[in-house]
Amino acid sequence: MDAARKGEAALSASNYEEAIQHFTDALKSNSSAVKYYINRATAYQRTKKYPEALADAEIAVVLAHKRATRELIKDAQFRRAQQLFFLERYADAEYVLGIVKKLDDKEKTLPIWSSKIERKMQELPEDDERRKVTTKDVPDVQVPSETQETTTKKTETPSVGTPAVVPKPIVPTPANKIKDDWYQSNDTVTVNILAKGAPKDKVTVDFDKDSLSVSFPVEGSGAEYSFNIDPLYAPIDPTESKFRVTPNKVEVTLKKATLGTKWKALEGDRQVEEASEGSSTTIPQHVLSSKPAQDSAPAYPTSSKSGAKNWDKLVVEDLDDKDEIEGDETSHFFKKLYSGATPEQQRAMMKSYQESGGTVLSTDWSNVGSKTVVPEPPEGMEARKY
Description:
By secondary structure, this protein is an alpha+beta fold. It has twelve helices and nine strands. The protein is elongated, with a radius of gyration of 29 Å. It comes from Epicoccum nigrum (Soil fungus).
């Protein structure tokens, strides 16, 4: 087990030759461990040793079928399909990928590999040998017999007082080793930040219509990881986008603003239009239950260094020279303030106003951009959750 854990750590750290050696040592103790063959096949693939990777994947398929474990069969067949692709056996790869689809048609990377194989098949002449299927569901390969050590372990009775195996804590991926990938469906684009041990409570993800920003500290190193895409290939709907943090990655799901649009890349080279008056300045309904103070108008919280402002007074002063006002005075004032701000100030205003339920309005992006703005109701009012 120690060799297997070392192999997994080396594989995660991209030390593939070291991982191959550790999994080889692990298989000496347990020659029927399907996962060890799949992991060693992965390491062989990363070092472009495709014949060795295919051999391990096919042994894994046979052993997984013997165990009749659906998840292991799917993982082994998927790894097998990839090696067949790299060895230019495209029809065989397509056939095996069909097996994977039957086992789990929701496997996230299936569309990517299907597309790769389809492109290669289209490029082949009609009489090309690579168009012919020469493989079977379960390959005819000889699997190693169980070692004496493995057999002995199965029949041994654990001794009384044997300490429980405590899993090792997850070692955070160093900042310079963190990788990312992405894939898409008709409705969404999913971005994976492949970072082990990312702290759930310290991961910051900022969605904007045209950009994405992800940042978090790498535990134990003092380093800060940052991932920024600006502009994105196409606009997204920030309100429908989301993210989650798992022990092995940060998964960000972006909702496409125009469903069905096919992204050719994650980052675009388009010109991003600045927000104009009326396009995104609609003020959401107030979420406060009113308990008005009778003596004076409420002083709303602000990030201004000069202190709190009486917004009602400012509205009146701004409108003194106006003969006709369209809509209520407060909305008119906010629209005027928004339209006269820089793009960064507009972004700060919308983020602070929406996240605080209309109780905080800030134009300082450096202050509100990296945190969630909490409600700060005026005196005599209280925040209400819906």
